[in-house]
Amino acid sequence: MAAKLSRRDVLLTSLALAGVPRNTFSAPRGPASSAPIFREVAAEVGLDFHHFNGATGEHFMPEIMGAGVALFDYDNDGDLDVYLV
Q1: Sheet strands (E) in the chain
Q2: Euclidean distance between CA atoms 67 and 49, whole angstroms
Q3: Under the phi-then-psi rule, with left for phi > 0, alpha for psi from -120 to 50, and beta for the rest, what region is 59?
Q4: How do residues 14-47 score in pLDDT, each as one tens digit?
Q5: Where is 63: in which H helix or E strand?
Q6: Displacement of CA 35 from its chain's centroid (Å)
Q7: Residue 2 neighbours by CB under 8 Å, 6+ apart
Q8: Residue of 46, 51, 47 whose CA lies nearest to 68
């Protein structure tokens, strides 16, 4: 089933997109860095996490959901703290 747009919707969408600079959707320019952005430091900082969902084969909601992670500065020391579920 195709969606039908009214003239008003088309006009509002066109006006909204007209205000967006063209280079917003382009890839960033500049020299490519060969240095890695991320570095594996889990072992260095003592982070050891193994996810086990307690699967019983019944496909309950916690069994089919994956693990989660939150990064935030809990103790306000300027370093990100890790919360794993």
Answers
A1: 69-72, 81-84
A2: 10
A3: left
A4: 877 777 666 656 666 667 667 778 888 889 988 8
A5: helix 61-64
A6: 22
A7: none
A8: 51
* Overall pTM > 0.70: no
Element (H, E) at 45: helix 42-45
At residue 81, the 3 state secondary structure works out as strand
Amino acid, single-letter form, for residue 67: A
Domain limits, the chain = 43-85
Q: Where are the alpha helices (DSSP H) in the chain?
A: 7-18, 42-45, 61-64
3-state SS assignment for residue 47: coil
Q: What is the pLDDT of residue 59?
A: 77
